[in-house]
Amino acid sequence: MAAKTLIHLLTYILSITAFTDALTVTSGDRSFGLNNFIPDIKTEADPSSLTQAKPISLRIRSTREDDVGEISTLLATASIGADGPSLNWKQRIDMLRVKRFLQSLLEQRFHVLRIGREAATAIDQNTECVISDADRLRLVWEHANFAVQLEKASKMSSEPHVWKQHNFALCPPDAVHLQHIMMTAMDSTTGTIVGFCEVAMMTPPDSVEKDNNKVTRLPTIANLVTNTQYRRQGIATSLLKSATRFVRDRWESDEIGLYVYKDNQRAASLYQKLGFEAVCSAGDKNDKLFMSLRSTAKRKETTEKVKERELVLS
Questions:
Q1: Helix, strand or coil for residue 194?
Q2: Sign of torsion, CA 241 242 247 249?
């Protein structure tokens, strides 16, 4: 990636507010560029809920630390597959266990977030001249115990994030590794959190290629979940569009990926309607589908290259 200006790099490290079409845009707490620390559970959008939807005034903003409790409940509910009175005794126990685990993961992430903010503030206060992107990244990495806490957080995740094989004694090659955004969807009338989306840099399946080269990292939807009482109102669609636009405009990426369980046909159908295309099977049990959305220009460019190769081969 070409070198960024100082402000651009700071935007990488402190990813600011998410935004979306036709929604109120608001500024919230900044999200430090970390990867996904959520376990491998079925948290993608599931339009199959039969719960009667409540009317909503939708607002999407960046996730704040005080959202953690409600978001953990949403993710835990998605992982159990039921909520409220429909839960049996075992499911209630599982619900509490999963929620506690998820909450600890999110709290660890925000702990690293605070360290990152301290680093950014310290750099701004102690540097009297413009420093290079590489030097700024190195200073953030070496601040306090940032790398130690990031390593701890990364080991709490089972997702294929870019930190799995990283040597934390070394600074990452560039700030792209740190790109991460969390978006909260809320009912602006009641203040209820009705959805959550998380995008992180992940390592796609080995079979994924771009311009004849193996892709080593790609912005990927790490989690997408909606409140069962507010589904069928376009919340998941709005979150996906917001994430896609953020990745395109802020991270300058022409592609975003996601994983969906093969048996979740309704969710896969939603993604396809938004332009995502199935790429390959994935998961330890080959029970997931990796899907990708490329910009129109990039799809056209890829199609033309394929046609050119076919002509050469013929």
A1: strand
A2: positive
Q: What size, in residues, is the chain?
A: 314
Residues 6+ positions from 213 with CB-CB distance below 8 Å: none
Q: Cα 97 from chain centroid?
A: 23
End-to-end CA distance of the chain: 35
Taking only the tens place, the pLDDT of each residue in 33-69 is 333 333 333 344 444 344 455 678 999 999 999 999 9
pTM: 0.78
Q: Which residues contact 39 (CB under 8 A, 6 or more apart)?
A: 101, 102, 105, 157, 158, 159
Alpha-carbon distance of 71 to 161, in angstroms, equals 21
The tens digit of pLDDT for each residue in 165-221 reads: 899 999 999 989 999 999 999 999 999 999 999 999 999 987 677 666 777 899 999
CA-to-CA distance for 128 and 147, rounded, in angstroms? Answer: 25
The Cα 216–Cα 293 span in angstroms is 17
Closest CA to 102 of 84, 127, 77: 77
Q: What is the DSSP letter of 161?
A: B
Find out whether 16 and 8 touch, Cβ atoms under 8 Å.
Answer: no
- Nearest Cα residue to 260 out of 206, 220, 216, 209: 220
